[in-house]
Task: structure prediction
Amino acid sequence: MQLKILRLHYKNIRDFRDLDLDFTKATDDLVPNHVSLVQMPNGTGKTTTINLLRRVLAGGAFTAEEVRSFAPTKWSAKTGSFGIDLAVDTRPFNLRIDFDFFAGEAQYFNSKPAMKAGGQDRGHYLPPEIEPLIHNNDRFVNLFVFDGEQARKLLNKDETAADQAIRSIFFLNRLALEKETIEQIRERRRAKSKGVSQATSLQGLKNLQTQLRNLKDTLREHREHEKGFRADVKRIESAIKGKEAERDALLSSHEDITEKNNLLRSEIELAEKDLIERTRLALSHIRKPSNFSPSMRDDIVSLGNQMAILKLPKATSAEFFNELSERKICICGRPIGEHEKDSIQKNSHEFLSEENIGILNAIKTHVRGLPQYEGVNVFLEQVATLKQKRDIARQKRDQLTAKLDPAAASRAATLRDEISSLTHELADKNEQLNFLTTTSKDLGLTPKDNIPLCQAKILEFETRIAEVTGTVRFERKAAIVEAIIDQTIEDSMRLLKERIVAKTNERIEKFLQHKEVSIAGIQDSIQFAKKGGVSEGQTLSVAYAFLSTLFENSPCQMPFVVDSPAVSIDLAVRREVSETVPKMFRQMIVFIISSERPGFMVGMDKQKEVQVYTVYRDTKPGSAAMNVSTDRKFFDEFQSEDDKPKSKGAR
Amino acid sequence: MGFKLGPDARKYFKGIDKESGTSPTGNLEVLWDPYYICLMVGIIHRRATPDEPTGQDFLDTFPSQYHAQHHEILAALVSAELDRIPIPRTEEPQVRALMLKLFGPDHPTALTNLGMSRMNSYAQAGYEILSDKIGAPTDLSDFLAEVHELVLRQDINMVPASTGVVKGRRST
Result:
C-alpha cells in the first residue's frame, strides 16, 4: 500500500494567488515522479507549505490568528484555500482547507475515492487504511513531512520523538489505546453499579458473602421457629379442645347441668360477639373529631363561624391580581404602568390561591353544619352492660361445677384454669408467629425477627453480590489483558529497537564517509555511540537513516517530503545523501533553496525520475504573485538574493 | 412527607392494633386509628412535641374511613395552632397567613409540609400523654372508655400544658 501526493493547489495563500504544483508523471496522472525537487526562495512560502501540508493531512483545527496569517499581504482577498490531491495506490481523493480571512475561520472539504468527479463533502476525510495512522497524529505526519527541527527532535534526549515514531509506525500506540478502552469499560461498570462500588474489591466481596451467609443462617432459624410456633399453636388448640371436651363431658354426666351449661355458653358467646360489634361502633363514632370530645366540637364550629365573620376566604384570589397586573388598564379605568404592576404583583401574595380558597371553603362549609356533640357514652354504656352480662354468665357456669361431686368439681376447676392458661399461651404463640411472618412494615421489625424482611434482605445481598462478582471477575480479566498489552509493547519495542538500531547503523555507514558516527541505541530519542559534539549534517544524516529504516518496515509506504535537506551538510555528504536518500522512498518531494543546489544536484542527477520546479516571484509590473517553472535550465540558473549560503561547502 | 409516629408509640398499641392485637373486644381496624387517637388527644391538650417524631412514614394520606371527616381534622389543627402560637381569632390577616402556611393543594391531604409536621408533633405529644396516663392497652373497649374519660377530664380542667411548646387552651 502506498500513499501518494499528486498535486498541491494554492489560492490566495500568502504570495500564491493561484498556483498548482503537479508532481505526477506526464504519462499518468495517478503516478508521481520519484523525486520532485521544488526550488523556492526563502520567505516565499516554503515553511507555510510544509505547515499546511501537515495540517491538511492530520486534520487539526485552526485559530483565527492562524487563519489570518495565511492571508495575502500583497493584494486583498477575503477567502483563500489550500488543496492536496492524494491517492492510496490507484484510488485518488483530495483534501482542501477553505479559509475565511475575514471571519478567521477554516473549513475542511474532501472528496472520497467513491465520489463522482467534482463532488465535495464538508469535513476531513482519510481512507480507512491510513486514517488510524495519520488522523490527529501530528507526530507521525511530522516524520514524513520533515525538516531540520524534526531531525533534532529525534536526537534530543529530552524529546520522545524516536520512541513515539516506532510506536506509531508499528501501531503499538493503537495497542496502548486499548488500555484506555478497558478503563472506559471499567468506568461504565462502576457508574452502573453505583452503591456497590465500595465492595468491588475482593475483600468487599468476601464481606458481602459473609453477611449473606449470616442472613441465610438467620432465615433458617426463623423457619425452624415458625415451624415450632405452628406446631405449638396446633398442640395448644388441640389441648384446649380436649380440655373443653373433658369439661363438657364432666358436666354432661348431669343432664340438667349440661343443658344449663350449654345455655350459659351460648349467652357468653353472644355477649362476646356483641361486645366486639359495640366496640367497633364506638370506635367508628369517635373517628369524627366533633364526636371525640365536646370541646373539640365547639372549637371546630367556632372556627367555622369565625371564618364567616372574617369573610375568610376572600372571593378574590392571587391569580386575579396577577392577571390584572398584566393588563394595560385597571378595571377602574386607570392605566397600569411598571410601578403599579410591581405593586399589584407584590401584594397579590397576601391573597390565597384559587386552590387554597377551595380548601378553606370546604372546611368552612363542612364545620358550620356540624350537629350537636354526640358522646360515645351510649356505646360505652352498652359495652359495659354486655361485659356485665358476660361476666355473670361466666360466674353462673363456674357455679354449675359446684353441683358436681367434690372430685369432679375440683377437676372442672382445674380444667377451667388450664383452659385459661392455655388460651393465654395460644395468644402469645400466635403473636410471636405473627411477628415472624407478617408483611406489615408498621411494627418496627428487622430481618433479625421477621421472615419476609429477612428474605428481602437476602435478595438484596444476592443482587449486590451478583453485581460485585461480575465486577471482580472483570477486574481480574482486565488486569491480565493490561499486563499482556504492557508486556507485548515492551517486548516488541525492545526487539524493534534492536533491529532498527542495527539497520540504521548500516545506512549511516553508507551515508557518511567516515564511520565514526553510529547510534548506540534508542531510548526516548536516538543515542549516539560517539561521545562529544555531532555536526548538524551528521544529525540530519542519522535522522534520514533512522526514518528510512522505519518506513521500510511500515505497512504503508509514505511519501517523504523534506524541507532544506542539504542546507547544513558538507558538500561531500550532500552528494552521498542526495544519491542515497531517494532510494529509500517510493516518492520524495524536496523543497530546496538555490544555495543548496551545489553538490546536491550531483546525487540527484543519478536518480531515474527527477522533476524540477522553480517557484519564483512574478516580476511583471503590478503582479507580486508566485509563478512556477518546470524548466531545468531555469532551475539550474535560478539564484535568489534571499537565499544565503548556510553550509560551509556551499557556494 | 407523611403521617408519622415514633417507634415507642407503635409498641404501645401492640395489644390492640390491627396486625398483632389480641383484644377480646376486637382490635383497631385501620393503621391510622392509633395515629388519629394520639392526634386528637394532643390537640385537645394543646400539646405538640418541639420536634417531629423520627422513623418511617406509615401512611401518606387519609384512609377511606377518614375521608368524610378530613375537613374537621384540618379545622381541629388550625384551632390548636391558633391557640398555640397564639393568634387572636379576630385578626384576619394573621389567621389567613397561618392557613396559607398549613394548607396547600400539592398534597392529597391538602396539608403543606409544615402542616403535616405540626400534625405529627401533636400526635406524638398525644401518645406521650396516653402512655403517661393509661397503661399499654390490651382491651379495646376499656381503652376507648379510658381515653374518653381522659379527654372529658381535660375539657373540665383546661389547664395549661406543663411541658412542650403549647401555651395553653383558649379560655372561651
